[in-house]
Amino acid sequence: DLSETMEIDYSTRVNLELTQTIRTGAKKGSLLWAIDKTKTSMGGRLLRKWVEEPLIISSSINARLDAVEECYDRFIECHELIEGLTGLYDIERLASKVSLGSINGREMIALKNSLGKLPFPKECSSKFGKGIFRQINELLDPLEDIYDLLDRSIADDPPISITEGDIIKPGFNEECD
Question: How many whole angstroms separate alpha carbon 177 and alpha carbon 174?
């Protein structure tokens, strides 16, 4: 919500070196570079957004801090959660390609594989209950129905180009009838 974030003008962003250095324009040496330990593209984009648009509402800030504190206090569970997120493909990007109709068969397999991993991070995050974890636990849908549909419909080794065909598993159309 834009009303909860600080608007930072371009000149201030550059001078603070939030996402890139003044001298070279590279990420290395910036605040984002120093703190980015994210495991997925989605997490990297979210962290970048949080750095570029810091919160100004104390309750929202405290919700993030409470979650960080809980991760610190529950080191083993936190690393299980991190492990569950490792290797996820960029679900946001793949979902955008689905909605635009520009996704290919291999990307559909990447989406299926990523969706297949979601139940484990969902289970891990349910061990946490402070701050934004509460909201994540309420909103995170492991999309098992979408995974099942992709698993039943997309060939295990589809061609890269959608014009080659053979993306849909033989017999899937009859299954839908």
Answer: 5
CA distance 29 to 44: 16
Closest CA to 4 of 47, 62, 70: 62
Q: What is the pLDDT along the chain (177 residues), one digit of tens a residue?
A: 678 999 999 999 999 999 999 999 999 999 999 999 998 999 999 999 999 999 999 999 999 999 999 999 999 999 999 998 888 999 999 999 999 989 998 999 999 999 999 999 899 999 999 999 988 889 999 999 999 999 999 998 888 877 777 888 888 876 665
User: What CA–CA distances, in Å, run from 108 to 89, 111, 153, 170?
Assistant: 11, 5, 10, 16
